[in-house]
Design a protein that fits this description.
By secondary structure, the protein is of the alpha+beta class. It is about 60% helix and about 15% strand.
Length: about 100
Amino acid sequence: MKYIDKISVKIIAAVLVGFLLAGAFTKITYTCTPIDSASGCISYDKAVMHSSDLISNKQDSLVHFSTTFVITSVVIFALLSILSMAQKRKPKLKL
C-alpha cells in the first residue's frame, strides 16, 4: 500500500505541473483596437482564460495544450521516479 501511495503522489504532482505549464505556454492571439493613433495592436492571452476558444481548437490551441500537458507530465513523472530510485540506492550513513 505504501508503494501505491508514493506512485499516486508522483502522478498527481506530474499532472499538476503539466497542467500549469501547459496553461502557461499555450497562448491565443487576438486583435485589439489601436489606442492613441497606433497602426494596430495584437493581444496575447492565455488559452486557459478562454476555455471556449481552447475547446474549439482556435489557432491549434487545444493541440498545443494537450501536447505540452502530456510531454511535461511524462517527463516530470519520470524525473520523480528516477530521483526516488536514486534516493533508495544511496547508502545511509550510520553514526
